[in-house]
Amino acid sequence: MKEYFNFTENKTDFKTEVVAGITTFLATMYIIVVNPAIIANTGMPFGGVLTATILVSAFSSIMMGIYAKNPIVLAPGMGLNTFFTYSVVLGMGVKWEVALGAVFWSGIIFLLLSIFNIRTKIVHAIPKQIRFAISAGIGLFITFIGFVNAKFIVDNPATLVSIGSLDSISITFLIGLFITSILIIKRLKGAIILGIAITTILSIPIGRLYGNAAEINYGVATLVTWKGLFSYPDFSVFLSMNLIDSLTLAMFPVVFAFLFTDMFDSLSTFIGVAEAADLVDNEGEPRNIKESLIVDAVSTTISGIFGTSSGTSYIESATGVEEGGRTGLTAIVAGLLFLPFMFFSPLLSIVPAIATAPALILVGVFMMKPVLKINWTQFDDAIPAFFGMILIPLTYSITQGIIWSFISWTVIKLALGKYKEVSVTLVIIDILAIAALLI
Hints:
By secondary structure, the chain is mostly helical. Helix content is 62%, strand content 3%. A hairpin with a 3-residue loop joins β2 and β3 (160-163).
């Protein structure tokens, strides 16, 4: 194992990788319940989607660790599940079986693009300055998600967002955030896991001894709830996809939208985490990028088979990298931890969102490091990079931030006559990006 994952070269060890894997799982486990909660609105059975979510997350992450040897966890993507539910099924009136078929076909196309190195060429076409900006933008995004999950930042009809109420929940979150920050600053091994555990313990009295979490916890007064121990897996949506009707001309825009969004979500995750953690090869490219993208494509393909929206790489993988995870063992450990929850999914209710929020926020700090590499004095580099960095959190979409950074880079460089800095591949990406915006 030590030789297979090159522990010495990656400056890591077995214990560090295991801790990193546990950390990543704790940061991503919310998807086990959140994904079926969203997709169940299509009429699909909650239990069936929950089982599918666990299987996709486990198999994809383990495959990433063994085949691509990268510390990246995969699971059905947030955003992709919303598009699947509200845009395709509810919005367009597409049957969910047909929508699963569209997910499957987008995965097949994705796989072909990866096998023939087309996606790798796309990575090479992305300017370095934009890569640095993507990492920073994801850092801001993941921090924003953390604050929103903790209800420290809330929506406001007048100002779009504003600070939340200073109550028992937000105070508990802040205490957890400061404790986790201090543990990280002291470079304590397992700091993020310990921070999550401490914040969970501090959350137990809410709704019992003081405070009321009903407003943010689906009407339940207590923040840390016990919903039982055991539940049987549900395979009712396995192989339910409709492969014939999903290949019609009318479904082409849907397949394309799944493909485009999934592709740039995964590419941005690889680039962002690789840049922040220096997981790059001798040429400065993300490590094992072809293998990683093949795994990502397989994840989308099996998502349609098992019965959920597209699987993709998770930006929360950065939490494990921050704990020192540098090899595929991190992803394997996280993937294995998903499997028991086929039977023990009710246990997930024990860890509230405010307990994992500090981890996401502090990982945002870690993800911001590449911003120092952006050439801020060269405005034709800085402006497109800034657009990408700031639009990722403001639009709540990694894909939107990337699209506008690509388009602005191309327009500005061509207007200045710097044709050599705009590759043919980048122009093709711009065209596809504009098409995606019009769908």
